Automatic annotation (TrEMBL):
UniProt subcellular location: Cytoplasm
Top-level enzyme category: lyase
Role description: Catalyzes the conversion of 3-deoxy-D-arabino-heptulosonate 7-phosphate (DAHP) to dehydroquinate (DHQ).
Sequence similarity: Belongs to the sugar phosphate cyclases superfamily. Dehydroquinate synthase family.
Binding site for Zn(2+): 185, 245, 262
Gene behind this protein: aroB
Name of the protein in question: 3-dehydroquinate synthase
Gene3D superfamilies: 3.40.50.1970, Dehydroquinate synthase-like - alpha domain
Catalysed reaction, written as an equation: 7-phospho-2-dehydro-3-deoxy-D-arabino-heptonate = 3-dehydroquinate + phosphate
Cofactor note: Binds 1 divalent metal cation per subunit. Can use either Co(2+) or Zn(2+).
Length: 361
């Protein structure tokens, strides 16, 4: 089976990618050596489409699963939801010998991973991602957490999964908007590490809703290799995965959580990062246009709505984890496929880049 190993010493794990794998999840978890009872965390949409298949597979493998559903959407990435889930798991008699299975998109993965990191001071968890964002990005790397009204992902823990099970078939039930938003993170990976992928993404026909398994695996490998060298984002390498996220997260937090999807906010953040890369690090107009063209190809938002003010975004953005002693570490591109962390970006630059998003292309 196509497998990417994430090599992190005693926290190493496999990412399995295969069509139809969901129905063999129980067996795959057994083979990975995970033991105990399973607490499945999912959201209402995902559970409706894919819950029964997973539960049957876990039952067949002897994991006696309980199911814990949260409302769909970014609003569920909250501390109150963490507490509710932990209480429900305790009621269902889970303890330190249990493990969590996250069945869902990035919201469920981040939330369930965080629950696993604190329940009984930490239990194992398995990621079964069901959106493009979560299959190519969030299920790998161990960043878990929830939001605060003050900003995105401000509470959390690094907690690596014990196994990641990627079944591209589950993407067939994604609504169109959630399908298109997923490509923002794929385009980000191409922009920071794999310029050759730009042509491959451009060749996809979004109307066919195609998500090739090898494209998913290629993205997982990009993320895995970065996480392996800088698991805790202390060396300025993992930070590259934050391209488009400084302003993107500011926008996502400036509107009510969930009204804009993560990939949609990152699309705007990427446009701003391209603008600043042209201004500050010599990114060619040609490379910039190629990346912007991919975002247009998937009809991702590139114009900031008037009712979201620059002040609101700057206020949320000030809480970003990449601010240190008032200085911003901002990810720029020198060319397509080549990103670096810069400290040359000023507060005025950020304001100008946000204003740039109000202009037509
Ligand atoms: N930890 C990380 O490294 C990392 C990386 C990227 C994103 N994130 C986080 O991930 C979150 C965004 O994740 P997302 O974009 O997957 O959003 P999401 O989890 O909210 O899923 C989007 C919507 O699609 C629905 N859905 C999911 N899978 C489905 C399926 N197969 N069929 C039908 N409907 C389905 C969900 O119910 C939801 O309504 C954000 O909170 C972001 O901060 C984390
Ligand atoms: O895994 C990472 O590292 C990333 O930056 C991936 C991002 O796509 C993701 O949105 C992540 O949650 C952002 O992390 P944060 O530390 O900026 O909150
Ligand atoms: Zn992201």
């Amino acid at each position: 089976m196509p497998t990417t190993r994430v090599d992190l010493g005693d926290r190493s794990y496999d990412v399995l990618v295969e069509k139809g794998l969901l129905s063999q999840a129980g067996q795959a978890i057994q083979q990975a050596g995970v033991r105990g009872r399973a607490a499945v965390i999912s959201d209402a949409n995902v559970s409706r489409h894919h819950g029964a298949k997973l539960l049957a597979s876990l039952e067949a493998a002897g994991f006696a699963p309980s199911l814990h559903e949260v409302p769909a959407g970014e609003g569920s990435k909250s501390m109150s939801q963490v507490e509710e889930l932990c209480a429900a798991m305790a009621e269902a008699k889970h303890d330190r010998r249990s493990f969590v299975v996250a069945l869902g998109g990035g919201v469920v993965g981040d939330l369930a991973g965080f629950v696993a990191s604190v329940f009984y001071r930490g239990i194992p968890f398995v990621q079964i991602p069901t959106t493009i964002v979560s299959q190519v990005d969030s299920s790998v790397g161990g960043k878990t957490g929830v939001n605060l009204p003050q900003g995105k992902n401000l509470l959390g823990a690094f907690h690596q999964p014990a196994l990641v099970i990627v079944d591209p078939d589950v993407l067939a039930t994604l609504p169109d908007r959630e399908y298109r938003e997923g490509y923002a993170e794929v385009i980000k990976h191409a922009a920071i590490r794999d310029a050759a992928m730009i042509a491959d993404i451009a060749a996809l026909d979004p109307s066919t809703r195609e998500v090739p398994a090898d494209l998913i695996a290629r993205n997982i490998a990009i993320k895995a290799r970065i996480v392996e060298v800088d698991e805790h984002e202390t060396k300025g390498i993992r930070a590259l995965l934050n391209l488009g996220h400084t302003i993107g997260h500011g926008i996502e937090a400036a509107v009510p959580y969930g009204s804009m999807l993560h990939g949609e906010a990152i699309s705007l953040g990427l446009r701003a990062a391209l603008y600043l890369s042209e201004k500050r690090s010599g990114l060619s107009k040609e490379d910039s246009a190629k990346i912007l063209g991919l975002l247009q190809h998937f009809r991702l938002p590139l114009i900031l709505e008037d009712q979201i003010t620059t002040e609101q975004i700057l206020h949320k953005l000030g809480r970003d984890k990449k601010f240190e002693a008032g200085k911003i570490r901002f990810v720029l591109l020198s060319k397509a496929g080549d990103a670096f962390v810069s400290d040359a970006v000023t507060a005025e630059d950020l304001q100008e880049a946000i204003e740039h998003l109000r202009h037509p292309l």
